[in-house]
Amino acid sequence: MDRVGGRSCDAVCKEKGRVCQGTNQPIPSNAEPAFREANVNCVFGPFHDPSTDQWQFSGDPKVGIEGLDDGICIGFKNVPQTILCDAKPTSNYGRLCPCRKGKFV
Asked: What is the mean pLDDT of residues 72-78?
């Protein structure tokens, strides 16, 4: 989980001594349990738009880490089996990343 914001999963995983698993990634199609495992409780404020629940962008799934979307999970439903590890959300969002132990080659 990127708690800084705006970083790719490649960068987040590398910082933790791991690699991003973009193909056959372990995040379930509905990522709510994965957010909970990363100690992120998805909240939905009064201006919650259910259309943002669906995976849409290469930087999804993500959570707002500041501003109006702070604590709001976005793009966590219908997460595909393959994600782009180098994709970056805007700086006020942190990605949920499928990191695994491994070597960088």
From this structure: 91
